[in-house]
Amino acid sequence: MRANRVRGASLRWPALLLTLACSGGLPGVHAAVVDLAWDRSIHIERIPSVTPGTFAELCGPLSTGQEVHWSFEGGQALDFNIHYHPGEQVVVPARQAGAKKAAGRLDVVLAQDYCWMWSNKSDHQTDLRVALRRQ
Question: Is beta strand 2-6 parallel, antiparallel or unpaired with respect to 55-62?
Fold first, then answer.
């Protein structure tokens, strides 16, 4: 597995294990992992494409008590989750399979790096637009 580095992002072992689980452990799966660079309270990210059999992930630190209003829209149905890694555990506070778009609110209960992740299990490349508003 190879992770493309985008803006200094790196894949940690727990994230690698989650990635293998989400992708079915297929060899040759490539990932776009993007560090969240919060600008004031709003962050909008355009991920140019999520190719078939790959995933995209936005990750960044959040503090206890914060909330993040999030939404996304893609051209193809994607499997989506929000997750974080306390120690060796993987906690998934939100998950949705086969969604072209969704929105919600994450209430941060533990100071951690949180990741928004989309897996493309379709046969078609898709663009993805994500909006996050931190409060």
Answer: unpaired
Assess contact for 66 and 134: CB atoms under 8 A: yes
Burial class (CB in 10 A: 0-12, 13-18, 19+), 129: middle
Q: Give all domains of the chain, ordered by start, each with its CATH number.
A: 2-134 (2.60.120.380)
Return the exposure string of 46-56: e unless at least 16 CB atoms fall within 10 Å of the residue's CB, then b.
ebeebeebbbb
- Residues (pLDDT < 70) of the chain are 1-32, 39-42, 44, 48
The predicted pLDDT at position 40 comes to 67
Q: What are phi and psi of 21, to 5 degrees?
A: -65, -40
Say which residue the tokens 């660079």 belong to.
37
**What's the confidence (pLDDT) of residue 31?**
59
Assess contact for 75 and 129: CB atoms under 8 A. Answer: no
